[in-house]
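Bumping my old thread because nobody answered last time. Still need a sequence for this structure:
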C-alpha cells in the first residue's frame, strides 16, 4: 500500500478513536469489551485514555481483556498501568475472571504484576478456590507459589480442596494436599473433601484423599448447634446420621467407587444409617414413581447394580443380614417395618424380581421375615403400600415377584404380628391380579378374611378403609367379592369408620 494512504488511514483511525473516546464514558473498556484489540492499542497510543476508567458496572479494560482470554491485550494494559486488583460493582477482580477461565497464562501475568493471590469474591470464594473448581493445575500452582492460602474458607466454609475434590481434579487435590490443605476440613452439613469426592463418584480423587490419611469408615457428622442448611454442592437435603463414604457411594449409584472403598477397608455390612449397602441397593435400583422420589441415579463407572451386588457379597457382605433399626428408607413411601428386614425382603417390597433372583443365587433366604413377622411374600404382594400407583412396583411386577415366591414354597397363609396376610397386602397395593393369583395358589379365606390389628379385612382395605386418604379400588373389590361369592362368604357386613387426617369423628370436630 502507498505510504501516503497508510498515513491517511492512521489519521482516520486516530480521529475515530478520539470520537469514540469523547462519546463513551469508558471508551477503552468499551473497546476491550468488544474484543477490539486494535482500538485498545490505538487509544492507548493516542494518549489521554484512562487505563483504569470503568464502565457503569465497574468493568475496566483489563477485566474485559481477561474475560476474553486476550493475554496480549491484558499485558499491554498492565504495562500501561492498569490496576490489577480493581473490582467491578460485584466485587470481581480480573484475577478471578482468569481463574474462572482456567487461563494459567493470565493468572501468572496478573500475579507477576502484583495481583493479590488471596483475592476473593464477596461471598469469600478465593481465586484459588475458583482455579481448583475450574481445573487449571498450572493456575493453582501459580497462586500457591505466590502465597495463596490453601485453607481459606468462603462464607459457607468451603475450601479449595473441597472444590477440587467435588470436581474430581485429582492433580489439584494432590497439589493442595502437598501445600498443606486441611484434608479433614468440614462444613456444617458434615461434608469433608472425602465426602465431596465420593458424592461425585471420583475414584482417583478419593484414593488421593485416603492416601492422605482419611479414615475410609469416617462418619459424616452434621453440626447440630445451628441451622441445617443445604450447602451449595454438598447436598440439597439433610444427610442421614451415620453416613459413611461407602453408603454415600452406593446411594449415588457409584458402584465401582463403592467396590474400591471396600477394598480400602470400608465395612461392607455397615448399617450406621439404618441400612447396609446391600439393603440400600433396593431403593437405588427402583425409586418410587411418585414425585416424592428421585430418578435412579446414573452413577459413575460401568458396574451395574446387579454386578455390584455380586461383588459386594464376594467382598464380605452378609446376604442375609437383618437390619437392627426400623428406619424408613429415605424418600420412599413404603410403610413396611424395616427392623429385621433382609435385603431380599426389601427387594420383594419393591417387586424387584431381578434383584430377588440375584440374591437367591448368592444364598439369600427367601423366607426370613422382619421383626413383625411380615414375610417377603406379603411384601411382594403389596403389604406396606401406602400410596398405590406412586410406589415402586407395578401390578405386573408384583405379580412376577409374588409368583416367584410361591414357586419357592412361601406360606400363602402366613399371618404377621399385625394380623396381615399376603391377601391384605394385595388389597393395600390395589392389585386385583395378585388377589386372583393368591386365591388360585390356595390362600385360605378363613385366614385372610379376618380383620387385622387395624380392624381391616382385605375387602375393607380395597373399599378405601386404609391409612391416609381413602383409595377405593373397584377392580380389587370385584376380585375379592368374586372369590368370596364362590365360597358363599357374605360381602355386605358392617364397615369400619374411616378416620384419617382429613376426616375426624363428628364429636371431635369443633
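Sorry it took so long. Here it is:
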Amino acid at each position: 500500500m502507498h505510504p501516503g494512504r497508510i498515513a491517511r488511514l492512521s489519521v482516520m483511525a486516530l480521529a475515530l478513536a478520539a470520537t469514540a473516546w469523547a462519546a463513551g464514558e469508558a471508551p477503552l473498556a468499551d473497546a476491550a469489551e468488544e474484543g477490539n484489540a486494535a482500538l485498545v492499542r490505538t487509544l492507548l497510543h493516542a494518549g489521554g485514555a484512562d487505563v483504569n476508567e470503568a464502565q457503569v458496572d465497574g468493568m475496566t479494560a483489563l477485566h474485559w481483556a481477561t474475560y476474553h482470554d486476550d493475554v496480549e491485550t491484558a499485558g499491554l494494559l498492565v504495562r500501561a498501568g492498569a490496576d490489577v486488583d480493581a473490582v467491578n460493582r460485584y466485587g470481581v477482580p480480573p484475577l478471578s475472571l482468569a481463574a474462572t477461565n482456567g487461563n494459567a497464562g493470565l493468572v501468572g501475568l496478573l500475579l507477576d504484576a502484583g495481583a493479590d493471590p488471596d483475592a476473593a469474591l464477596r461471598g469469600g470464594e478465593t481465586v484459588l478456590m475458583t482455579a481448583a473448581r475450574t481445573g487449571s493445575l498450572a493456575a493453582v500452582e501459580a497462586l500457591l507459589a505466590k502465597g495463596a492460602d490453601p485453607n481459606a474458607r468462603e462464607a459457607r466454609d468451603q475450601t479449595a480442596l473441597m472444590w477440587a475434590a467435588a470436581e474430581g481434579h485429582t492433580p489439584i487435590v494432590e497439589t493442595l494436599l502437598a501445600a498443606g490443605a486441611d484434608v479433614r476440613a468440614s462444613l456444617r452439613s458434615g461434608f469433608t473433601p472425602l465426602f465431596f469426592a465420593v458424592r461425585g463418584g471420583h475414584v482417583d480423587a478419593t484414593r488421593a484423599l485416603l492416601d492422605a490419611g482419611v479414615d475410609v469408615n469416617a462418619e459424616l457428622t452434621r453440626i447440630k448447634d445451628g441451622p441445617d442448611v443445604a450447602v451449595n454442592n454438598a447436598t440439597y437435603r439433610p444427610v442421614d446420621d451415620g453416613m459413611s463414604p461407602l453408603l454415600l457411594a452406593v446411594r449415588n449409584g457409584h458402584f465401582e467407587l463403592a467396590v474400591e472403598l471396600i477394598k480400602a477397608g470400608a465395612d461392607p455390612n455397615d448399617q450406621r444409617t439404618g441400612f447396609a449397602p446391600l439393603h440400600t441397593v433396593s431403593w437405588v435400583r427402583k425409586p418410587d414413581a411418585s414425585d416424592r422420589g428421585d430418578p435412579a441415579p446414573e452413577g459413575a463407572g460401568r458396574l451395574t447394580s446387579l454386578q455390584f451386588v455380586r461383588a459386594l457379597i464376594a467382598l464380605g457382605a452378609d446376604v442375609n443380614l437383618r437390619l437392627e433399626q426400623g428406619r424408613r428408607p429415605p424418600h420412599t413411601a413404603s410403610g413396611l417395618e424395616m427392623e429385621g428386614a433382609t435385603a431380599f425382603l426389601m427387594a420383594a417390597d419393591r417387586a424387584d424380581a431381578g434383584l430377588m433372583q440375584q440374591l437367591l443365587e448368592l444364598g439369600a433366604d427367601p423366607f426370613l421375615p422382619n421383626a413383625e413377622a411380615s414375610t417377603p411374600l406379603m411384601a411382594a404382594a403389596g403389604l406396606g403400600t401406602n400410596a398405590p400407583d406412586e410406589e415402586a412396583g407395578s401390578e405386573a411386577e408384583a405379580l412376577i415377584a409374588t409368583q416367584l415366591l410361591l414357586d419357592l414354597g412361601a406360606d400363602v397363609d402366613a399371618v404377621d404380628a399385625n394380623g396381615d396376610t399376603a391377601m391384605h397386602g394385595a388389597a393395600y397395593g390395589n392389585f386385583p391380579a395378585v388377589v386372583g393369583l393368591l386365591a388360585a395358589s390356595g390362600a385360605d379365606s378363613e385366614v385372610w378374611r379376618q380383620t387385622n390389628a387395624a380392624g381391616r379385612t382385605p375387602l375393607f382395605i380395597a373399599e378405601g378403609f386404609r391409612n391416609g386418604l381413602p383409595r377405593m379400588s373397584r377392580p380389587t373389590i370385584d376380585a375379592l367379592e368374586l372369590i368370596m361369592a364362590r365360597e358363599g362368604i357374605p360381602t355386605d357386613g358392617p364397615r369400619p369408620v374411616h378416620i384419617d387426617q382429613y376426616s375426624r369423628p363428628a364429636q371431635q370436630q369443633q
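Residues 137 and 477 are 66 Å apart (CA to CA). Let me know if any region looks off to you.
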